[in-house]
Write a structure and sequence with these properties.
With about 600 residues, the protein is α/β, with parallel strands linked by helices. It contains 20 helices and 19 strands. The strands form 5 sheets. It has a 5-stranded parallel beta sheet, with helices on one face. It has a 5-stranded parallel beta sheet with strand order 9-17-10-11-12. Strands 13, 14, 15 and 16 form a 4-stranded antiparallel beta sheet that branches. A hairpin with a 5-residue loop joins strand 2 and strand 3. Helix 6 runs antiparallel to helix 7. The longest helix is centred in the last third of the chain and has 31 residues. The N and C termini lie far apart (about 80 Å).
C-alpha cells in the first residue's frame, strides 16, 4: 500500500516531499520550505534559492540583486558573504520521484531544484577567506584541496582556473563531489558560529561544468622514463596512483580482477550515488593518456604475482579491504543472509547488463539477490548501509529496517566532539529520506544487536531475534529479557570490512600489521619486499574514497623516487667496470 503513493501526480509528489532534505541540510541547517506552503522567513525564497530583484523588466543583462539576511536586496559581495547569506546546499531530487529510477540523486539542469549560476555564486561568496582554512587541513580534506582558492575563482566566474586548482590536489573530483561525506564542511571555520560553506556542492559544480565545457582533455606525457609499473586494483587508490605515475612518465598497467575497471567505484557504490558513465568517462580519459587496463586478472590466482613482479620495475598493491565483517550467530547460514557488497555488486551488474541491452533471459536469476516484496533488515549503518536501504527501496521492498549497535547520535555536537572534528550528529541520508517518504517513518533502530536468525523448514530466513544493548566501559552489553522477533526475508550485513584478502600478500611474503593490513609506513608506502608498494584500504584499513586518493597519490610519489633511483643505478652500472662497478651499493650518495 505504501508504494501506491508513488502513482500520484508529479505536483502532488513535490508537495509531499518538500520537507525531505539531504543529509547535509539536516546535519547543519534545514533550508527547505516547510510543508503546507507559506513564504519562508529569511533570504531563501519558495523556489529554494536566495530571492532576487531586478530594476525592471528589461534589466536581464546585469546580475540581479540578492536578498540578504537583513531583508535588503543588494549586489552579491564576498567580503561579508558568510554574514549576509544563508547556507543553501543544492538538494537531491525529490524522494518520491527518484525512488522510481536508478538515476543519480543530484538534480539535472532541467530540474527546478537545480541551483542557478547566481545561487552558486552566492554560496561561493560565503567562503570567508579565513586566515587558517581548516577545511584543507588534516581535520578537513584528506587530499588538502585548495578550497578557499577555487571558491574565490567560482565567485569571480573563473571556472577554467577553478578546475585547474581543483585538479592540483584531486585526481577525481567528479567522484568525491558525489560520494564524499565532506569532512571539509565539518571543519569549515564558518561552521564555528554559523553553518559551513557548501564546499561539496561547489566542487561538484566545478568539475561537471569543466567536463561540459570541454576543459578536461587528455594530458599526454611529453617524455617517458622507460620504467614500468604494475598496479593491482582499479579502485580510487589504484586509479590515482596510475594517473600520477603516468604523468611522471612511467609506463603504467592496471590489473583488475573484475570484468570492469573501477573497483569500489564501479560495483561498490550504487548507480544513484555515482552514475557508471561518470566512472567510464574518467577511465577512458586515463586510457587515452597512455595507461593500460587489464580486466579479469585475479592476481595470485589466474595470474602469478611473482611473474608479474619480475616483468615490471615496480609493483603497487591497491587491492582494497574486501574481507567483510561477519555476524557469527545461530542461523547465519540460512538462505537470505548476505553481505552488503554481494547485494550491491549483483544489483549493479544486472543494471549494467540491462543498460547494454542484454535480455532478461540472460540474467543470472539464481544468484541475483532481490528485495522485491520482502521484509528487509540492514544490519549496520554508515554509507554502505544507506546504499543497501536505497537499493532495497528501488527493488520495491515490503519494508526496510536498519539496525545500529550504537545509541542515536545527538542533534548537535557533544562536548567531546568539538570543532574542527567531524560532527558525530544525527543526520538524514538519502536512503533514510526515501523510507520516510514512502513508509512514513525513519528506518533506523538504535542500541540493538542480533541474537539469532530464524529459518523455515526449507532453510529460508523468515525472522531474526534482537536484544537491546547498553554501552558500558567494556563495550556494548546485551540487556537480558529484551529479546524481540522481527520478520525478515532478506538480511544484509553492512558492518564494515576487517582487512584485505591475504593470498597476494602471502605469495609475496609481505608483512602485515596487527589488523592484518599490508604493512607499509604512511608516507613511504614501501613494503618489506623490494620494489613492492601498498596503498589505499589494503594498507590503511577501510576508509573514504578521498583517503584512497590521498594514499594513491602518496604511493605514486614514493614509487617515483624508487624508480628514478633504480634507473640511475642501472645507468651507472652500465657505464662502470672493474673496481668502480659496485661503489653505488656502498653509499646512496655516490
Amino acid at each position: 500500500e505504501a508504494y501506491t503513493m508513488l502513482s500520484v501526480s508529479s505536483a502532488a509528489r513535490r508537495r509531499a516531499s518538500t520537507i525531505i532534505v539531504r543529509a547535509q541540510n539536516v546535519r547543519y541547517m534545514s533550508t527547505s520550505p516547510a510543508e503546507g506552503g507559506g513564504k519562508p522567513e529569511g533570504p531563501i525564497g519558495e523556489d529554494g534559492r536566495h530571492e532576487l530583484w531586478r530594476e525592471g523588466i528589461y534589466d536581464h543583462d546585469n546580475e540581479p540583486k540578492v536578498k540578504r539576511r537583513d531583508g535588503s536586496f543588494q549586489s552579491i559581495e564576498k567580503l561579508r558573504g558568510f554574514l549576509n547569506y544563508e547556507r543553501n546546499p543544492e538538494p537531491y531530487r525529490r524522494p518520491l520521484e527518484r525512488v522510481l529510477d536508478w538515476g543519480e540523486l543530484n538534480p539535472t539542469e532541467e530540474d527546478d531544484l537545480h541551483h542557478t549560476e547566481v545561487e552558486q555564486k552566492v554560496q561561493a561568496a560565503r567562503c570567508m577567506d579565513c586566515g587558517t582554512p581548516f577545511c584543507q587541513t588534516h581535520t578537513g580534506c584528506p587530499v588538502n584541496n585548495l578550497i578557499p582558492e577555487w571558491n574565490s575563482l567560482v565567485y569571480n566566474d573563473q571556472w577554467s582556473d577553478a578546475i585547474d586548482r581543483l585538479h592540483k590536489t584531486n585526481n577525481f573530483p567528479e567522484f568525491t563531489g558525489r560520494v564524499c561525506p565532506a569532512p571539509c564542511e565539518g571543519s569549515c571555520v564558518a561552521g564555528l558560529v554559523d553553518s559551513p560553506v557548501t564546499i561539496k556542492n561547489i566542487e561538484y559544480k566545478i568539475v561537471d561544468r569543466a567536463w561540459k565545457d570541454g576543459l578536461i582533455t587528455p594530458r599526454i606525457p611529453k617524455e617517458r622514463s622507460g620504467m614500468t609499473v604494475a598496479i593491482v586494483g582499479s579502485g580510487p587508490a589504484g586509479l590515482a596512483a596510475a594517473d600520477q605515475l603516468n604523468q611522471m612518465g612511467h609506463k603504467v598497467t592496471v590489473y583488475e580482477r573484475a570484468d570492469r575497471i573501477g573497483g569500489l567505484l564501479m560495483y561498490g557504490i550504487p548507480n544513484m550515488k555515482l552514475e557508471k558513465d561518470t566512472v567510464d568517462r574518467r577511465v577512458n580519459l586515463l586510457r587515452e593518456e597512455g595507461i593500460e587496463f587489464v580486466t579479469n586478472a585475479d592476481i595470485g590466482k589466474n595470474v602469478d604475482v611473482n611473474e608479474l613482479r619480475a616483468n615490471y620495475d615496480a609493483l603497487a598493491l591497491c587491492v582494497g579491504a574486501t574481507k567483510p565483517r561477519d555476524l557469527p550467530v545461530p542461523g547465519r547460514d540460512l538462505k537470505g543472509v548476505h553481505y552488503a557488497m554481494e547485494f550491491l555488486t549483483k544489483n549493479q551488474k544486472r543494471l549494467l547488463m540491462t543498460k547494454e541491452g542484454n535480455l532478461e533471459s540472460s540474467w543470472e536469476k539464481e544468484t541475483f539477490i532481490t528485495a522485491a516484496g520482502k521484509d528487509v533488515i540492514v544490519i549496520g549503518g554508515g554509507d554502505t548501509g544507506t546504499d543497501c536501504i536505497g537499493t532495497s527501496m528501488r527493488h520495491r521492498c515490503k519494508s526496510v529496517t536498519n539496525f545500529e549497535l550504537m545509541p542515536q547520535p545527538p542533534m548537535e555536537r557533544a562536548p567531546n566532539n568539538p570543532w574542527p572534528q567531524w560532527p558525530r550528529v544525527f543526520g538524514v541520508d538519502y536512503g533514510h529520506a526515501e523510507v520516510q517518504a514512502v513508509f512514513g517513518k525513519d528506518p533506523r533502530v538504535y542500541s540493538v544487536m542480533t541474537k539469532e536468525f530464524i529459518g523455515d523448514d526449507e532453510g529460508n530466513l523468515k525472522a531474526l531475534v534482537t536484544q537491546a544493548v547498553e554501552i558500558t566501559d567494556k563495550g556494548p552489553k546485551a540487556i537480558e529479557g529484551s529479546e524481540k522477533e522481527w520478520p525478515a526475508d532478506l538480511v544484509v550485513l553492512s558492518m564494515g570490512f576487517i582487512s584485505p584478502e591475504e593470498y597476494i600478500a602471502e605469495d609475496l611474503g609481505l608483512d602485515s600489521d596487527q589488523r592484518n593490513n599490508i604493512h607499509a609506513v604512511y608516507g613511504d608506502f614501501r613494503t618489506n619486499v623490494e620494489g613492492v608498494f601498498a596503498g589505499g584500504d589494503c594498507r590503511r584499513g577501510q576508509s573514504l574514497v578521498v583517503w584512497a586518493i590521498n594514499e594513491g597519490r602518496g604511493l605514486a610519489d614514493s614509487a617515483n623516487q624508487y624508480l628514478q633511483q633504480k634507473k640511475a643505478d642501472e645507468t651507472s652500472s652500465d657505464g662502470r667496470s672493474g673496481a668502480f662497478a659496485n661503489l653505488s651499493s656502498l653509499s646512496p650518495n655516490i
